[in-house]
Amino acid sequence: MASLTVLLLTGGCKREPDAAAARVPSLPEVAPDALRPLEAFSAIPDRKARSQALFLEASRVFFHPRCANCHPAGESPLQGDDGQLHDPPVVRGPEDQGVVGMECTSCHQDRNQELTRVPGAPKWHIAPIEMAWVGKSPREVCEQLKDMKRNGGKTPEQMIEHNAHDELVAWGWNPGSGRTPAPGTQAQFGAIVRAWVETGAECPSEEVRP
Ligand code: HEC
Ligand code: HEC
Predict the structure, then answer these.
(1) What is the pLDDT of residue 15?
(2) What is the pLDDT of residue 5?
(3) 27-57: per-residue pLDDT in tens?
(4) Distance between CA atoms of 200 and 190, rounded to whole angstroms?
(5) Of 72, 112, 75, 115, nearest to 91 (Cα)?
(6) 64-87 tens-digit pLDDT
(7) CB 3: neighbour CB atoms within 10 A?
(8) Which one of 67, 104, 133, 185 would you pick to mutate in the ligand 1 pocket, going by the greatest count of ligand atoms within 8 A of its CB?
(9) Distance, CA 117 to ligand 1 centroid (Å)?
(10) How many CA within 13 A on the CB side of residue 130?
(11) Tally of CB atoms within 10 A around 77
């Protein structure tokens, strides 16, 4: 977290630090399995810097393996906390649902199957390639989430709604079989995404990482 603080303080750019960014207070430390409370961000006076910090907090969920494994950049979903290729080998297929005889839902049911370790949620399938996050920076993911050509045609309100209530997103906090859940709760995450939109949906600068 120290690096985030430094980059926020310096504005993350080579020019002399601008005055607003220089006043950004450091955010409180947070456990890896928690999200910072919204109040922590109201301490950032500059609206743009606050919005950027909110997106970086949300990025701790977007880039979490429970989400990123299903938002890969290639043909195959990933698995585990270190993003290994899906075993057994499967591919996204023409409609992101696998291929005939090897559809995602031939193994993945609408709920987790503890005996076989197969995770599940309704309509389990891989995120379309234009929604890939693996290998991208928070700024790139931020830009694509705002781009209706790449986000499934979602308005900002629908984007909030998807993050706060979608069932595949919800699985990230109920992954079964001892998998590490995404940090915080889905309700907290939805509130952070809402606050990010309401502060202008600003994207962090390219080099900043959560
Ligand atoms: C089982 C696979 C799967 C998992 C797990 C998953 N997603 Fe997705 N995600 C998808 C699919 C498929 C879509 C596209 C369908 C849609 O837009 O409704 C999508 C779309 C999205 C979008 C919409 C737009 C965009 O530009 O990417 C967001 C936001 C999103 N997911 C967030 C998350 C978050 C946050 C998590 C983890 C807490 C997560 N997803 C976990 C499959 C998954
Ligand atoms: C032949 C059965 C089978 C098929 C088909 C299949 N999966 Fe899986 N998948 C599994 C099993 C089993 C696991 C659990 C592996 C483990 O954790 O031990 C798994 C795990 C996953 C995970 C990892 C969750 C995590 O974060 O660790 C994702 C994501 C996933 N599958 C997505 C998909 C998608 C998307 C498809 C279709 C393109 C698909 N799977 C097709 C059997 C299958």
Answers:
(1) 47
(2) 45
(3) 999 999 999 999 999 999 999 999 999 999 9
(4) 16
(5) 75
(6) 999 999 999 999 999 999 999 999
(7) 11
(8) 67
(9) 21
(10) 12
(11) 23
